[in-house]
């Protein structure tokens, strides 16, 4: 590995994407990416008792589908990096516990998938692991209860309010040579312009994304 500038790391061995999967909900199935998902659930609870359990199920499904594509089993994976939007990352811990894979929990909010890919790639690049998984999830209903107003409250949404994705994505990385590779990673920095509108998270996050080129 070598550094380029202050925040970019060049990966010499270029970790290989062995498998990937995305599971989504009803609203996502109505958007322009509908044909890109491996599995779609019209029932937002996925047959579970609570939305939190359904979000855990999303992670279970995405990781299993990614492993199927990569033709690997849980015991073939050295480490899994995962996170979600809930307290104690319960969607991740409960959704992945059945795999019995060494687990590193992350909380980066909307950056969690990128964060997990950065760390999973570096683990493979450094030979600290032969195979890793990066995964995250979110659920509109769990996020509303966590950060805004529970749906049962019946609060009115503002025109600028965000709609959190109901879905999960997973990527398996290894030392393979054929296919998509991770060539470099860029670690951003906190950029706070004082945005306080909880219904406009995009405005709060955009400055940090824009600052990565500096």
Describe this structure in words.
- The protein is α/β, with parallel strands linked by helices and 214 residues long.
- The protein is built from 6 helices and 9 strands; from the N terminus they run E-E-E-H-E-H-E-H-E-H-E-H-E-E-H.
- It has helices at 26-29, 51-70, 90-96, 112-125, 140-147, 201-210; strands at residues 2-4, 8-10, 16-24, 39-40, 79-83, 103-106, 132-138, 167-174, 184-186.
- It has a 6-stranded mixed β-sheet, sandwiched between helices.
- Strand 3, helix 1 (26-29) and strand 4 (39-40) form a beta-alpha-beta unit.
- Helix 2 (51-70) packs across helix 3.
- The longest helix has 20 residues, at 51-70.
- The chain is globular.
- The mean pLDDT is 90.
Write a brief caption for the model.
This protein is of the alpha/beta class and 214 residues long. It has helices at residues 26-29, 51-70, 90-96, 112-125, 140-147, 201-210, and strands at 2-4, 8-10, 16-24, 39-40, 79-83, 103-106, 132-138, 167-174, 184-186.
Biggest beta sheet attributes: 6 strands, mixed
Chain oligomer state: single chain
Give the low-confidence spans. none
Secondary-structure element sequence? EEEHEHEHEHEHEEH
Q: Walk across the major sheet and give the strand order.
A: 4-3-8-7-5-6
Rg calculated over all Cα atoms: 18 Å
Output the keywords.
single chain
Question: What is the fold's blueprint, element by element?
Answer:
Layout: E1 2-4, E2 8-10, E3 16-24, H1 26-29, E4 39-40, H2 51-70, E5 79-83, H3 90-96, E6 103-106, H4 112-125, E7 132-138, H5 140-147, E8 167-174, E9 184-186, H6 201-210
Parallel strand pairs: 3-4, 5-6, 5-7
Antiparallel strand pairs: 1-2, 2-9, 3-8, 7-8
């Amino acid at each position: 590995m070598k550094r380029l500038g202050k925040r970019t790391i060049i990966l010499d061995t270029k970790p290989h994407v062995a498998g990937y999967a995305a599971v989504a909900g009803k609203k996502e199935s109505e958007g322009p990416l509908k044909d890109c998902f491996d599995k779609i659930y019209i029932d937002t609870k996925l047959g579970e008792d609570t939305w939190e359990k359904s979000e855990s199920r999303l992670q279970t499904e995405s990781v299993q589908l990614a492993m199927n594509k990569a033709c690997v089993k849980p015991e073939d994976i050295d480490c899994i990096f995962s996170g979600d939007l809930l307290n104690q990352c319960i969607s991740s811990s409960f959704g992945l516990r059945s795999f019995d894979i060494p687990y590193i929990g992350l909380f980066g909010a909307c950056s969690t998938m990128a964060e997990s890919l950065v760390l999973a790639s570096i683990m493979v690049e450094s030979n600290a692991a032969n195979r890793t998984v990066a995964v995250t999830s979110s659920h509109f209903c769990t996020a509303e209860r966590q950060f805004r107003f529970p749906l049962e409250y019946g609060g009115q949404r503002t025109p600028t309010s965000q709609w959190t994705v109901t879905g999960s994505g997973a990527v398996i990385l290894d030392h393979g040579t054929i296919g998509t590779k991770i060539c470099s990673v860029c670690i951003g920095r906190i950029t706070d312009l004082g945005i306080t509108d909880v219904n406009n998270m995009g405005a709060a996050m955009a400055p940090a994304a824009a600052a990565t080129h500096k």
